[in-house]
Amino acid sequence: MSDQPPSDRLVSRPARSLRLSLWFALPYGALLFLILGSGISGFIQDYQRSPVSQAGWAAHCMARDALLDMDAFASGLMDESIRRLRATGPDPRDSEWMELRNLLMGRHSHLDEDTAGLYSRLILDNSRAWNLDPLLLAALIEVESRFRSGALSNRGAIGLMQLRLTTAQETASRLNLGEVQAEDLTRPELNIALGGRYLRKLIRRNGGELAWALEAYNRGPEVVRGIREQGDDPPPEFWSFSDTVLRKYRHFSELRRLWDISSADMVARSR
User: Fold this and answer.
1) Does 95-261 carry CATH code 3.40.50.80?
2) What percentage of the chain reaches a pLDDT higher than 70?
3) 97: nearest Cα among 138, 49, 67
4) Using one digit for the tens of pLDDT, what is the confidence trace for 219-251?
5) Domain ranges of the chain
6) 168-212 pLDDT per residue, tens
7) Are 105 and 113 in contact (CB under 8 A)?
8) How far is the C-alpha of 114 from the C-alpha of 117, rounded, in Å?
9) Exposure class string for 33-43: b at 16+ Cβ within 10 A, else e
10) Are 194 and 171 in contact (CB under 8 A)?
11) CB burial class (10 A; 0-12, 13-18, 19+) of residue 133?
């Protein structure tokens, strides 16, 4: 029989049970912590490898270091447009976005509403960042890939804007977006951002002459520069690519004019 008072025995038995429970629970708790820790670490690594977070982190770092730089602003805008779209979706009051989305859906049956909406927002945001007409960007993408993000040409051009890997890597380097691999160019947000930036550079390099810039986009800037330096007018077939893009661009612009007339008419009728 124990010498301890009854009250001491009532206290000590739960205490002993608690000590035994802790003794057995601690190893399992440590094991669970390791499992959860590795799972969280893997999740973070997957997130950091995701299309949006990689470009977003680079864009935010660049914006922090060069707030007044246009490239930094545009890359931050790219990330912000993706974050906003994935989080809340586009603003349904944005008539320009709705018109462009409907245009893409009407012309390309493989685009569902969400994909057409995403492409439209990316086109609008990047056209503003690079001072381009969004319909020009849309026309170029339609001619290059017909809005298929996985498009691959026999010359190795990839994605919506049919970028070659070397061109994309050079452009990404100027934007401080880090290393770009071929598979990265199937990501719409990266492809359109790099393609828009590259087109703006070619327009500036060719003195604002859009047809020459488009031919440089298609043939390569060095080829076009060599032809221009010769001083002779190229044959008519030289302009086949730019003619096709500009014809699409004029068609889209005419549709926009009709949209504007229709919108103004609806406003007038509502008064």
Assistant:
1) no
2) 61
3) 138
4) 999 999 999 999 888 999 999 999 999 999 999
5) 95-261
6) 999 999 998 889 999 999 999 999 999 999 999 999 999 999 999
7) yes
8) 5
9) eeeeeeeeeee
10) yes
11) middle
